[in-house]
Amino acid sequence: MNRLRIGLVGTGPWASATHAPALARHPGVDLSGVWGRRPEAAATLAAAHKTTAYADVDELFAASDAVAFAVPPDVQAPLAARAAAAGCHLLLDKPVATTTDGAQHLAAAVERAGVASVVFFTLRFAADTSAWLSEQVTTGGWFTGRADWYGSFYAPDGTAPFSSPWRASRGGLWDVGPHALSMLIPVLGDVSAVTAAPGPADTAHLILRHTSGASSTATLSLTAPAKCAGLTVELRGESGTVVLPPWEEPGEALRTAVDELIESAGSGTAHPCDVRFGLRVTEILAQAEERIEAEEQHAETT
C-alpha cells in the first residue's frame, strides 16, 4: 500500500507521549488528524504534530484510511465500531472493551466491514519479547507458566504519568491482565477454565487451565509497593525453565504495530493480535472478574 492516512482518537498522556509521535514519525504514515473529547487538548496535540484537529469524530474517520485509539476501553469500543463502519482499519488499545458485549459488538462491526485490526499488546510487538515468544512457541512441551505484573502505578502524592479514572476503577485485572494473557495463550493454548481471587487493593490472582493441558497463573496489580514492582513471565517444561527478557520502550513497539497493521491492511491477512483475539482476552478477563466478585461477596456474608 501507499502511505496510510491514520487518524488518532485520544489526547491524554498515552496518546501524547506514544501514539502521536510514533504516527507522525512513521515513514509509511500520514497523521491525518486528531480528535478528542476535550477540543482544546486535540487542538494542542494536532498543532504539535502539524496536523488537523477535528471537532467531529466522523469527519476524522472520513479523512483517514485507519484510526489509532488511545482512549478508555469502553469509550474505544463504540467509536472503533463506527470507524470500521466508515471503512477504516483499526489500531486498537488493550483491552478492546471491559464487557463481553462491548467486545463482541466491535468484533462483529470489524467483520462486517472487512477492515484490518491490530490490538496493541505491547509485549507482542517489542522486538526482544516478541522474538522470545516465537522461540517458546516453536520449542513447545511446556508444562506450566506464570505471568506476574506487579505495578506500582500510583505515586505517593496521588499522581502518575498515565493515571486515569478507568485504570483506577478497573485495576490491574483489566490494565495489565491483557498483557499477561497475550503472552500465555500463544504458548499454552486458549484458556479452557478460569479461577480467580482478590488480593490486596486491586490485586487479582488468576489460575488458568489451557487447551494444551498446561496450567498457568497470573498475579496482576497496579498498587504494589514500589520496591517490589516488576514483570515476570516464566515457562517450565520439557526443555527447562525460561524467563521473559527485558523489553524496550513502548514507542518502538507501537511503530512495529503500525507496520503490521499496514501489512495486514494491504494483504487482507488477519493479524494474530486482531480484534478477535482482543475479544477472547475480554471474555477471559470478564470470567475472572465474575469469580473475584463472587469471592468478595462471599467474604462479606461470612
Topology:
Layout (H helix, E strand, L loop, with lengths): L3 E6 L3 H13 L3 E7 L3 H10 L8 H6 L3 E4 L3 H13 L3 E5 L6 H14 L3 E4 L6 H13 L2 E9 L14 H11 L1 H12 L2 E8 L5 E7 L4 E7 L8 E8 L2 E4 L6 H18 L7 H27 L1
Parallel strand pairs: 1-2, 1-3, 3-4, 4-5, 6-9
Antiparallel strand pairs: 6-10, 7-8, 8-9, 10-11
Kindly state the percentage of residues in helix. 40-55%
Architecture per CATH nomenclature, i.e. the level-2 architecture of the largest domain: 3-Layer(aba) Sandwich
Give Rg in angstroms: 19 Å
How large a portion of the residues is in β-strands, by DSSP E?
A: 15-25%
Which CATH top level class of the largest domain fits?
Answer: Alpha Beta
Count of folded domains? 2
Distance between the termini: 61 Å
Largest sheet: 6 strands, mixed
In round numbers, the mean pLDDT is 94
Fourth CATH level, the homologous superfamily of the largest domain: NAD(P)-binding Rossmann-like Domain
Total of DSSP H or I helical runs spanning 4+ residues: 10
Number of strands: 11
In short, what is this structure?
The protein has helices at residues 13-25, 39-48, 57-62, 73-85, 100-113, 127-139, 165-175, 177-188, 250-267, 275-301, and strands spanning 4-9, 29-35, 66-69, 89-93, 117-120, 142-150, 191-198, 204-210, 215-221, 230-237, 240-243. With 302 residues, the chain is of the alpha/beta class.
